[in-house]
Design goal:
Number of strands: 0
Helix content: over 70%
Number of helices: 10
Shape: globular
Structural class: mainly alpha
Low-confidence stretches: none
Largest sheet: none
Distance between the termini: 44 Å
Radius of gyration: 19 Å
Length: 208
C-alpha cells in the first residue's frame, strides 16, 4: 500500500472504531466468562453456594470499565507518540495518532481468542491461577509460573509476540503518516512508547 492510498483508507471514523473495539473486547470478556471462568471448579462451588453474585458484580464492573480503560490507554500512548514525533521535528496530528493506536489495538484481539480456545480444547480443566498466568506466546511460557515470583508474572506476560507486533504496527503507522524514513519512525516509537512501556514494567516490579 502506498502512502496516498493509506491516507485515503485512514480517513475512517474514529468514533465508530472506538465503539467497535470496545464492543469486541466486551464480547471477548463475556465469552471468557461463560466458556472458561464458569467451568473452573472454584467458581462452580461458588455457584452452588449461591455466592457467585459477588463475582457477577466484579465482571459487570469490568464490562463497564472497558471504554474507560481503553480511552486511558490510548490517551497516554498517543501522547507519548505525539511527544516523540515533536522531539524529532515531525508534525502529526494528535487525532491521527489516536486513530493509529486504536487501529493497532486490534492485534490484541488475537491472544484473547487464543486464550479462549486454549482452555476450551487444550487445557480443559484449569485452576484460576493457571488461567491468570496464561498469556499466549509470552515470556511466561519459558518457565513454570509456579516457580516464578508473582512480581514477575505481569511483566513476563506483557512481553509477548503480540506486543512486539504492536510496536511494529506503530512504527509503520508513523512512517506512513509522517511521510518520512522508516528508520526515523522506528526511533520515534523506540524513544517514546517502547521506552515508557519498559519503564512501567520496571516500576511495577519495584512497587509490587
Amino acid at each position: 500500500m502506498n502512502r496516498n492510498k493509506f491516507q485515503e483508507w485512514f480517513s475512517f471514523s474514529a468514533t465508530g472504531l472506538f465503539i467497535l473495539v470496545c464492543f469486541i473486547y466486551i464480547m471477548l470478556l463475556y465469552l471468557k466468562r461463560i466458556f472458561v471462568i464458569d467451568e473452573i471448579a472454584a467458581f462452580e462451588v461458588l455457584n452452588e453456594r449461591g455466592e457467585i453474585w459477588i463475582f457477577d458484580i466484579f465482571y459487570s464492573i469490568q464490562y463497564l470499565s472497558v471504554p474507560i480503560f481503553l480511552a486511558w490507554k490510548w490517551s497516554w500512548t498517543t501522547t507519548a507518540l505525539w511527544i516523540g514525533c515533536f522531539m524529532f521535528g515531525y508534525r502529526i496530528l494528535f487525532s491521527d495518532l489516536w486513530k493509529l493506536t486504536m487501529l493497532a489495538e486490534v492485534l490484541f484481539f488475537v491472544p484473547e481468542v487464543l486464550k479462549i480456545f486454549w482452555f476450551l480444547f487444550i487445557s480443559t480443566d484449569p485452576s484460576y491461577s493457571q488461567y491468570q498466568a496464561f498469556y499466549p506466546l509470552s515470556l511466561m511460557h519459558l518457565a513454570d509460573y509456579t516457580e516464578v515470583s508473582a512480581r514477575w508474572h505481569y511483566p513476563l506476560k506483557a512481553l509477548n509476540i503480540f506486543e512486539v507486533t504492536y510496536w511494529s504496527a506503530l512504527v509503520f503507522g508513523i512512517y506512513f503518516l509522517s511521510k518520512k524514513k522508516l528508520k526515523a519512525a522506528s526511533y520515534i516509537v523506540l524513544s517514546s512508547y517502547i521506552f515508557l512501556f519498559l519503564c512501567w514494567l520496571v516500576f511495577y516490579m519495584i512497587i509490587y
